[in-house]
Automatic annotation (TrEMBL):
The gene is LOC113492107. SMART domains: zf-AD, ZnF_C2H2. Residues 207-235, 262-289, 290-318, 319-346, 347-374, 375-402 form the C2H2-type domain. It holds the Pfam family zf-AD. It comes from the Eukaryota. The keyword Nucleus applies. It comes from Trichoplusia ni. Its main location: nucleus. InterPro entries: Znf_AD (IPR012934), ZnF_C2H2-type_TF (IPR050888), Znf_C2H2_sf (IPR036236), Znf_C2H2_type (IPR013087). This is Zinc finger protein 1 homolog.
Length: 433
């Protein structure tokens, strides 16, 4: 039965025996964490489901972190109390089969002893009256009544005076009420505007830009587009001197990431929204639910799949180099290409001092200097320092050929082999001519 072991959801994405825990050196497996937190024994060969949904996975890791913190602090407090000489020691007494505790209090707190004795004696207010009730429920109701009498008297003494607060001029009173969407469960300020997101794309209201043909779902989105795209209004960051579209968002995401509200429990990274966290959580699992309808390649998010279709299959290249007329899909790729004309290499490797034209190439190069080979093959004993080395190695096991020649259709296992074939077999004689 393929259901979530905790909440019985019908679409569980994860297997308890294949999940990871934290990346901070925790030696516990996720199965041990699951049993430690919930007390549920899971057998691998059992007929009962061993699957978990992504929400329950995050909740178990969060609860494990909370429980470990509570146990650690409890041990610390008890050890601190023992070092201080044990000024408060509980003494247990039995009265009419009712177990009570009485605290032996130091001389510094004698003035509060009367109040403590009252609170302790609430459970044994009248020794003889315990036998006068027919059921335990009647006896408990009397205990509650006595208890709340003391609470009401205590709150009346400490109750503040009913003086009306003076209204401060210019103070804004928050009257925004949030409503919950029944379709997706999100709480939003404007439920009517949010409901447009659940309509089909053909029936949504679209607002056209005055300058270009791009359309938007709201006037505010069109205003932001016009301000940034057509008016060119941008600001420079005072910390890194980078020209950005949204300075406040750039500051939080780049320079003050610890203030972001949503934390990933397995790796500790923080995100600005829950949707960003959900997208990131797919990196901790091997699930790839979004498949390309052209080449059947699978992706963890729909946006990555659409980006792949635009770049690989639609051959979209809107950024043109003014020096050699070569076009690129992304503006960043054009900026990297321009450095090939200027021979500029601004990124230096701190390990060997070698310079590179792009930050991504420099980061990929730095993995060579690591002592540990982090990427291990699941089919043999080989391991590699870089992820792309492992990807190239896996072709020797799968024998997959998914790189076809654009001229004759012959398929190759590696893209560099295909590129070499296209040049030697089809393009070399064109260049010579």
């Amino acid at each position: 039965m393929e259901v979530c072991r905790v909440c019985l959801a019908k679409t569980p994405e994860k297997d308890i025996f294949q999940l990871q825990t934290r990346k901070n050196g925790d030696s516990k497996s996720f199965l041990e964490v699951f049993t430690f937190c919930l007390g549920v024994q899971v057998a691998k060969d059992s007929a009962v489901s061993t699957k978990l949904c992504i929400k329950c996975y995050r909740k178990v890791l969060s609860y494990h972190k909370f429980k470990c913190l509570a146990l650690k602090n409890d041990t610390y407090l008890k050890s601190k109390l023992a070092l201080e000489g044990g000024s408060v020691k509980p003494e247990v007494f039995i009265k009419d089969n009712i177990k009570t505790e009485q605290l032996s209090i130091s001389d510094d707190s004698q003035n509060n002893s009367v109040k403590d004795e009252v609170n302790i004696d609430l459970f044994v207010k009248d020794e003889d009256s315990a036998t006068n009730y027919d059921t335990d429920d009647e006896f408990l109701s009397v205990i509650k009544k006595i208890k709340y009498e003391y609470i009401e008297e205590d709150t009346k003494e400490k109750a503040p005076s009913n003086k009306k607060r003076k209204k401060v001029k210019g103070a804004k009173v928050s009257t925004v009420t949030r409503q919950m969407c029944e379709e997706c469960g999100k709480t939003v300020k404007d439920l009517k505007a949010h409901s447009y997101m659940h309509l089909p794309e053909a029936s949504r209201r679209r607002i056209k830009c005055h300058t270009c043909d791009q359309t938007f779902s709201s006037h505010s989105a069109r205003y932001k587009h016009n301000k940034i795209k057509h008016l060119g209004i941008r600001q420079k960051c005072s910390i890194c001197n980078k020209v950005v579209k949204h300075p406040k968002q750039h500051y939080r995401l780049v320079h003050n990431r610890s203030s972001l509200p949503f934390e990933c429990v397995p790796c500790g990274r923080r995100f600005i929204s829950k949707s960003s966290l959900d997208v990131h959580m797919t990196t901790h699992t091997k699930d790839r639910p979004h498949a390309c309808d052209v080449c059947d390649k699978k992706f963890s998010t729909k946006s990555l799949m659409l980006l792949h279709k635009r770049q690989v299959h639609d051959k979209e290249k809107s950024h043109l180099c003014q020096l050699c007329s070569k076009s690129f899909f992304k503006k960043y790729h054009l900026q990297e290409h321009l450095r090939s004309h200027s021979k500029e290499k601004p990124y230096e490797c701190p390990d060997c001092g070698k310079f590179f034209a792009s930050l991504s190439i420099m980061k990929s190069h730095r993995e060579i200097h690591k002592d540990v080979k982090s990427y291990a093959c699941t089919l043999c004993d080989m391991s590699f320092k870089k992820r792309n080395y492992l990807s190239v190695h896996m072709i020797s096991h799968t024998k997959e050929k998914r790189h076809p020649c654009q001229y004759c259709g012959v398929k190759f296992g590696r893209s560099d082999h295909r590129k070499r074939h296209e040049y030697t077999a089809h393009e070399k004689h064109l260049v010579a001519a």
